[in-house]
Amino acid sequence: MRKKIIIPLLLAAALALVLAACGEPKNNAPVEHKHDYVGSITKEPTCAEEGIKTFTCYGCGDSYTEVVPKSDDHVFESKITREPSCSESGERTYTCRNCGYSYTEAIAATGNHMFEYFETRDPTCMEAGARIYKCLNCDETQEDPIPATGVHDFRAEVTRKATCVECGEITYTCSMCGSMFTELTPATDRHLYESKVTKEPGCEEKGEMTFTCSMCGDSYTEEIDELGHNWSSWQTTREATEEEEGETARHCTICGKIETQPIPKLPPSEKPDPEPGDGTEPAPGGEPAPGGGN
Q1: pTM for this structure?
Q2: Between β-strands 51-57 and 258-263, what pairing exists: parallel, antiparallel or unpaired?
């Protein structure tokens, strides 16, 4: 700005001197005028537009102009077009306010994470846990350790059942770390018997039931009562007469045994009394009279 003020003042002073020199010629002799031009920038060139340089004669004020080429000097204004984060660089864009030319420069990542509580990893009996914090702007995490508890979480499982003669086994396994140990359980002293008929009972013969322990094989037997006969109804197999006993019988439907009982003889039938004079009177001693009847 100061340069622009000084140049016109110098031009005005020079013009006054020239006018004084170019005044009336001595002895009224004509003098040939020669221009003495002094140039000055009357329009500053920019990166977008050409400038103007004006040349003015000190003596007479005649002037002409010349084009001043565009300047290579941009007038940049900067603006952050991408803010930097804790892990990613940002970007600053420089734009010339005269011609619009622009370029960018990287802004270094800040490295300042904004951590916020994210989750907790619970500790186990053997492994430490942690409170986990995650950066709001990136995936960076930070952990605050939580010491291991040292306390197992054992779950019991019967891995071998106790029997009447053998001990059982319980296995304890930690649900968190897999550590385990076993513990014996005493024998039950109680047999688990299964029964089976080893001899079928008959009508008059006892049977046998065998009891065997399914765990140790111990066994014992018990008698099964005889079934008894299943008799059919009595049926007459021989009719009784006056001279001979009859017979009735029944049989067992299971074993086929037959049982009989006699049927008493029939009582003698009564004979009619003889007619008088027919010669059939019994003789003394019960014999019929001789010659009586045919």
Answers
A1: 0.37
A2: unpaired
